[in-house]
Every structure is written in C-alpha cells, then in structure tokens.
Amino acid sequence: MDIEQRMSDPSKPPSTTVGTRLTFTEKFRLQTWLMGIIAFAVVLFLLVQAKFILIALAIAIILFSLTSDAINSISRLQIGQFRIANWLASIVAVMLIASGLLTLAGLVISQLNTVLTTTLSYTDDAQRAIAQMFSWMGEDVEQSVLQTVRSIQVSGYLRSAAGQAGTILSQVVLIILFVGFLFAERVWFGTKLENLIDDKAQAQRVSAIIGSIIRRVNRYLLVKTLISTATGLAIFLLLSVFDIQFAVAMGLLTFVLNFIPSVGSIVATLVVTLVAYIQVPEPQTAVLIFVLAGMTQFLLGNVIDPMLMGKTLRLSSFGIIISLAFWGAVWGVPGMFLAVPFMVAVMIVCSHIPAARPVAVLLSREGLPEEEFPLSTGQPGAENPRSEREFRHAVGAAE
C-alpha cells in the first residue's frame, strides 16, 4: 500500500521511513553517550584504584622530560678528543635525580616527625587560640567554638599523618625506578613513534606536539620551583626573626604548597599565621607576620611569577580551579600538584584535534589556545614556523 501511494503521489514523503530513520539516529546518539559515560566511569575507577602507581609514573615522566633535553646537550659536548657518552650522561642524571628525591623525602619525613612529636604539647594552646579568634562575637560563641574544636580527634589525624611517611619513601623509590627505565628506553622513542604511526610526517607532527607540551610544562615547573624556593626561604627567615618554632617546617610547607595554584599560597599563609598566633603572646605580632607573609606571597606569586612565566600557560583561571578540584578528588594532594601539567597537556592536544578544539578554547585564558612556539617539521621551508597555524600548513604541505 505504501508503495502504491508513493507511485501515485511521489511528492508525499514516506512518514514511516523517516520516523524509522530518526529513531535509528536517536538510538545511535544515545548509545554513543552511554558508551562514553561507561568509558569515563571505567577510566575514573582505574585512576582511583591505581593512583599509587599512576602518581609515581606521572612524576617520573615530568622529571624525565625536565632532564632529557639537558642530557642531549651534554652528550653533544666534546672536550678535546673526549666526548661524553649518552649512556654515561643518563646514568649521572638518574643518580642525581635519585639523590635529590631521597634527600627531599628525608627532609620532609624528618620535619614531619618533628612537627608530630611536638604538636600534642601545643594542642590545648591551639584550641584556645582558635576560640579566642571568635571572642569579639561574645563569650557564648567563644565557648561553643572551643567545645567544637576540642571534639576533633587530633591524635587520629596525627597517626594518619605519621603513616604517610612510609608511603612517601616507597613512592620515591618507585619514581626512581620509573625514571631509570625511561632513560634506558629514551634512545628508541623516536623510532617507536615512527613505527607506531607508520607515517613519517604524522610522526613528526606528533613529536612536535609532545615537544610543545614538554617545553610548556618544563618552563612552568622551573619558574614555580624558583618562586617556591624564594617564598619558602622568605617565610623561614621571617619566622626565624620572630623566633617562631617550626620555622624550617613552615618554610618547607610553603615551598610545597606554592606548587598548587591559587589555593596553595593562601593555605600556606593561613597555616604560618596560625602557628605564629599560637606561639606568640601578643596578637599584634601574629597580625604583623600575617601581613608580611601575605605581602611576600603577593609580590612573588602575583608580580614576579607572571613576569617570569610570560605566556607559557595561558590557562583559564576557572579551568585551573576545576582541574584542581577534579584531580584533588581523584588523587588527593598529589593530584593537585599535577593538575596544571595535565591541563596544559590536554589543552595542547585538544587544540590539534578539530573535534576537540572547543575544549582547548574553554581551557585557554583568552579563548586562543595557539601560542607562538618554534617547531620544526623537518621539511624545507618549514623551519621554526611562527605559530601553530603555520606549523599545520607546513605539515600539510609535507604530506
């Protein structure tokens, strides 16, 4: 009957066929969304369950990328007839990384033990000091805050913090092992990439994208390390002048927390002020320490840091907060340290994929994920293109 109607009136569309086609399209979209949600859930589950290994692997990759270019430069040096072998430079780099990580872990563990062993003696003073902050609201409010603070089981948190010492040491050992194997395999990375993609021009394109990610992350980490070191030393000197206990621990805490964008410096300043407020008898001294520590954080973090960083990141501030919240929920404090490098990698990769480019636009600060960076495609006339767009054109011409 439907065929006879179509033959008698060809202009009339077959409603049943159109409805069936729309139904298939809707089903396909629904299945795609469901598969995407399931895949995201599986990946999230694996990230949480294997976070110990994945955190160590991520840190190892970052340390490897920081030192890989330096080793390539050292291996090209020639002193007379003697030339430093690539394997020798790699061994020296692994030894330096291992010694640096073990020294830092030992310092963190020793300061953690020092703070934990003396914190119990300051528990009552800390509780009263926190309650006194609300004395201006009335005696009833002060007593309520004091009772609330005393209900917190401090000893349980201290035991949990003490248990992290062994975790830190084991994770450092795992990081060193990962770095060693990465250096052992780094000679074959280029060959593996070309054989994996089976297209030399496309392999060069992927290699250039990876190089862009490494350059941005390396510059970010180097600047952050410099700024965090200066801030930690400034806080240490500030507390030492006022003869505050835990000056070394507070300087180290400031150094570590400054790697967490936006939130870390605020938390570090509040902790330093609270420690000073508990120990000094005059509240004016604590206020002065708070002002000086805040000015130090503002000067180094909001003035000098952007000057040194330049346009390396160009990330959205709101995107950084979302990334901090997500990775903090998945991996805890280590995830917050790795949130910005992960965000840089996602933005650069998405900027090269047309379908994912809206994600890169949302993650970038001005909505322009491209950045002026020198890339080499290995083709004549395509050396050091001035922008990512020229790089794409050069690779397209090479293909």
What does this structure look like?
Helix 5 (about 125-130) packs antiparallel against helix 6 (about 140-150). Residues about 1-5 and about 370-399 have low confidence and may be disordered. The chain has 16 helices and two strands. It has helices spanning about 1-10, 15-50, 50-75, 85-120, 125-130, 140-150, 155-185, 190-195, 200-240, 245-255, 265-280, 285-310, 315-330, 335-350, 355-365, 390-399; strands at about 80, 80-85. The protein has a two-stranded antiparallel sheet with strand order 1-2. It starts with a helix and ends with a helix. The chain has about 400 residues and is an all-alpha fold.
Features:
globular; disordered N terminus; two-stranded antiparallel sheet; 399 residues; mainly alpha; single chain; 2 strands; 16 helices; disordered C terminus
